[in-house]
Design a protein that fits this description.
The chain is mainly alpha-helical. About 55% of the residues lie in helices and about 5% in strands. The protein has a three-stranded antiparallel β-sheet, with no helix packed on it.
Length: about 190
């Protein structure tokens, strides 16, 4: 299986959202859009409960690293979260499984990573890109880096411990770094 990529073109970012809604569900589109804005690993994103959200902040401990993630929610994330809450006022999880018969008759659970992976992969195939659940996090990191060229800032947002890891993670290649040196003459 190929490594998933950041989506580097903003029109494609929007197209992924559109196709997820059309080919799968509005919930998958919400996962994509909120995931882009929170830059969490999929396991943490799917585990978010409405009780983890306090006004305009999400506060969780990341499952992989046990690091505290305190994320200020931007307007887009807040709007989508409020839409989900209004549509499903009794849900515990932001992305709760509710459509299949087992979900209806059992204790509330978040949507499965497998379901999200499958929906993302199908859209990725259609667009001929390696799209996966980690693409949301990588895409946010890539676009923050393109906007700021501040790798330390991207590292902090992704809660990485090395610049090399972050550059590789967001798909910044030596070719792109060389281009930056060529284009900026002082």
């Amino acid at each position: 299986m190929a490594e998933v990529q950041a989506v580097k073109n903003l029109d494609t970012v929007r197209l992924v959202s559109y196709l997820l809604e059309k080919r799968s569900s509005k919930q998958m589109s919400h996962i994509w859009n909120i995931g882009l804005n929170l830059a969490l690993r999929i396991s943490d994103l799917l585990a978010v409960k409405f009780t983890d959200i306090n006004n305009d902040r999400l506060i969780i401990y990341e499952s992989k690293t046990s690091k505290l993630a305190e994320i200020k929610l931007n307007d887009k994330a807040l709007t989508l979260i409020n839409e989900i809450k209004l549509t499903h006022p009794h849900h515990i999880y932001l992305f709760q499984s509710y459509r299949n018969q087992q979900a209806i008759n059992s204790k509330p659970k978040p949507l499965s990573r497998r379901a999200v992976t499958k929906a993302f992969a199908l859209v990725g195939e259609e667009l001929n890109i390696h799209l996966g659940t980690h693409s949301m996090r990588k895409t946010r990191g890539y676009h923050l880096y393109q906007k700021t060229h501040d790798i330390a800032r991207v590292m902090k947002m992704l809660r990485h411990s090395s610049e090399a890891t972050t550059l590789r993670y967001i798909g910044i290649t030596q070719e792109e770094i060389d281009k930056d040196f060529e284009e900026l003459e002082l």
